[in-house]
Amino acid sequence: MSILVTRPSPAGDQLVSRLRALGQVAWSFPLIEFTPGRELPLLAGHLGALQADDMLFALSQHAVEFAHARLQQDGLRWPDAPRYFAIGRTTALALHTESGKDVRYPLDREISEVLLQLPELQTVVGKRALILRGNGGRELLGDTLRERGAEVTFCECYQRCNKHYDGAEEAMRWQSRGVTTLVVTSGEMLQHLWSLIPQWYRENWLLRCRLLVVSERLANLARELGWQDIRIADNADNDALLRALQ
Prior knowledge:
By secondary structure, this protein is an alpha/beta fold. Helices cover 39% and strands 22% of the residues. It has a 6-stranded mixed beta sheet with strand order 3-8-7-4-5-6. Strands 2-1-9-10-11 form a 5-stranded parallel beta sheet, with helices on both faces. β7, α6 and β8 form a beta-alpha-beta unit.
């Protein structure tokens, strides 16, 4: 089997390297890239408003990386006051590395539903919650925290931008290389991939590939788009994807 990894750099390149080291045939085909978010200039003000027992959430490594770079540019440090939370282990490690703070995260799946089950997030009336994220994305975390009585602010730390390709050319390339397994880690990338590939290649190659995704929600979207051979990894990090691919 030949594996096409569509997650962006550097995580996509790292996964391909690990697969090749295990003797697998794997290729990197990043569908999106990242640029600084429109709300980064507001970050310092948002962080400065957080007080003891308020909450700071990071929803991805990229949010942490862009936020940290902005703080360094402004000559600022991560604040001591709030409690730190992350969507999963990889993001928590990135946030802890840059901030030096203890970071709470769900030990099960890296999704908002599981994060919201943490005991510390059950009683949040009157507290501020600052959510560092990319453009768009799900509103579940913010909506639920508001329902529980928190004052929620989002900060767009980065933007995801679709990378542009010649769809027919790419489909021909990957079909000729025998790609039969696709790794896709977001609904946005799945939609972009489906739209990018012309209908003939979609029907005769793309939708016949096995698809590895990272959530039941993403699997449902894939079924709606026409995939049938779908597998769900335990989590969105490369370790979980590697386990699922082996």
